[in-house]
Structures are given as C-alpha cells and as structure tokens.
Fold:
Amino acid sequence: MSLSILDRLASKHSDAVFVSECKTGSSWNGCRRLDAWALLKTWSPPTIIGYEIKTDRSDFLRDRKWQEYLPVCHELYFACPAKLIAPEELPQDVGLLWTSGESRLVTKRKAVRREPDPVALVRLMTYVLMSRTRIVNDMHAAATSAADRWRDWLTDREGERLVGHMVGRRIRSALDDARRGQREAEERAKRYQQIEERLTELGLDPNQRLGLADLEGRFGNPRAAGALRRLRQMAGELERVASSGLEKEA
Structure:
C-alpha cells in the first residue's frame, strides 16, 4: 500500500518536531495553514522547513497563497506525485520533492536557505506551543508510562551504546568470576583426591571417620608417621583454601 505524501514527510522527519496542518498564527489574525512544518533537532544551524503538498495539477496552478509561507521557515518545499510539478515551474529558491515507489520522497531540487521573518515565526511557534504540545514541570512526566520512557531511552543511539557497554562489562565480570570459581573448585577437588590416595596407600577407607590420635595409635612405624605428617599438612592447606573460598562467596 502506497503511503500518502504527508505520511512520507512524517517518516522523513521522525526525529524532528513535525507538525501537520500547521497554522501560521491565530485564526482571527488571518493566518494560513501549512500542510506540514518541521523543526530539525540541530543547532548547526537551526533549521525550519515548510511543506506545501499538491496532489492535483489544477490546485497547484490556482494557488497564490504559498508565498506567504516563506517568512515562517528557512526552507520551503513543494511535495507532489512524480512529474506533477516541474522544477522550472517554481522560483529558484523553492525546493521540490517527488514521490518514489511506495514510501519514498526524492529531491528534484533543493531549497535555498533564507532567514525567516522573526515576528511571523514567533506567531507560528506560539501556535505550535499553545495548540500542539504538552508542557510539564518534570519532562519525565511527559511520557505516558515508565515503559515508554525506557523505550525512548533505549532507542536513542547513545542509550544503545551505553547499554551495550554496561551489559558487556557485567557479562565479562560474571564470566571472570565463574572461571575463577571453577579453578578454585578444581584445585580443591585435586587436593581431596590426593588425600584420598594417601589414605588408600595406608590401607584406610577415605570415608571412615578417624582422628589423628587413632591413626598414630594404629600406625606407629616411621613410614606411617611421615605419611600422617604429610596428611596433616595437606589437610591444613585444604582448610585454608576452603576458608578462602567461603570468604569470597560471602
């Protein structure tokens, strides 16, 4: 389905202040109505663009009021179906857009920048502020919900970059902690296995609960005493490693 010219303009200025059917002032002051008006979100330089939409050739030929839109914008464009208006039919400083395909607009001639009339521009912007905007003390309250505010923030390019950076940093930190914990667990398991092997060499069941005094009474020879000393040392080292791991988890 082909988009209307107004919808194409709105899409073109999705990141700008875009007002359709924009009056140039109050009704009692003999105002005109621009088909579309856009204030770009830039300070270099500030740019206001006016649009006059034409879909009928005879309407374009009869129109004599469009010159009154020049004082309220830096650039003025006609937007129409392809070939409805030829570039040479417009003054050199007025731009022209043609429709293309189902949703695009192509520039047939770029408008020449001019300085708008300050008084006329103030009248139009007063209309925009009074009739088309919602002013709040807290700008965050302008969003209809917390979800809207987060969605707007996340869709901002800077927001995307920051979120990506924060998530990436959290993931890296979690992976580092997981790898560190895995290495410590493997080290503890290795030490447990060594103790079990020494006990097995002495003919003991590693799952049997015996105190060191019981073991010394059972094995009084020097070889057994040396093995018990090594077991004491390994048990002490294992206890320190386990205590260190518990402190980190706490």
